[in-house]
From TrEMBL, chains A, B:
Protein name (database record): Transcriptional regulator
InterPro entries (UniProt xref): HTH_HxlR (IPR002577), WH-like_DNA-bd_sf (IPR036388), WH_DNA-bd_sf (IPR036390)
Stored SUPFAM superfamilies: Winged helix' DNA-binding domain (SSF46785)
A molecular function (GO) term: DNA binding
Organism phylogeny: Bacteria, Bacillati, Actinomycetota, Actinomycetes, Kitasatosporales
UniProtKB keywords: DNA-binding, Transcription, Transcription regulation
Segments forming domain HTH hxlR-type: 5-104
PROSITE patterns: HTH_HXLR
Amino acid sequence: MPYQCGLDAAVDVIDGKWKVLILWALHERPRRFGATRRELPGISEKVLAQQLREMEADLIVHREVYEDTAVPRVEYSLTELGRELHDALGPLGAWGNRRIRMLQELEESSLAG
Amino acid sequence: MPYQCGLDAAVDVIDGKWKVLILWALHERPRRFGATRRELPGISEKVLAQQLREMEADLIVHREVYEDTAVPRVEYSLTELGRELHDALGPLGAWGNRRIRMLQELEESSLAG
C-alpha cells in the first residue's frame, strides 16, 4: 500500500471502467446482485462479482446477508467511505462532461471545415 | 470516443499512475522536459514523452517551442482544460488521504490486536 499521495490512493480504487459506474448504481439505493447488474449493460456476472469483492476489500461497499427468507438474500450498499468517494467524484464527472462537449464541438467544426 | 458519462471521459484521461502526477508538476508552473522528469522519480524518458504526447492530444497539456535561442527550447504547461482537471481532482485527492489514514489505523490496530 505505498501510495505517493492521496490521488494515488484514490485512482487505485476506481481503476477500470466498471467501479465508477457501480458506485453510481449503489449510490441511488442498496441493490441486490441482479439489480446491480441490470444497471450495467455489458458486464458479466463474473466481472461484477470480482469488482464487488474488490470494492468490499477497499471498504467502499458493504455486503449484507439477510437470513429472514427461505433463501438468504444478499444486498450491496455503499459504506460511508464509499458515499464520500461518490461525492468526491462529482467535480471530475462535471469536468468530463465539459470535455465531451468540447470534443463534440471540435468534431462538428472539423466536419463543417 | 463513445463515453457513457462524464466520469468515463475523465477517468479515460487520467488512466495510469503518471498522468495525475504530471498534472501536479505542471500545475505549479510550466516546465521543460528534464525539469518535469525530475519531479517524477522512476519515470523513463520514453514513458514521459508518451504520456505528454497523449495529454497534449487530450487537450490538457500545451507544448510551446521557443526559437529565440541557438537550440530551440520546449516548454510544457497546462491548458485551461488541464487546470480545470487539476482542480476537479482536488476532492478526490482529499478522499484518498482519508483512505490512507484509515488503512494506517487498521494496520496499527491489527498489529496491536
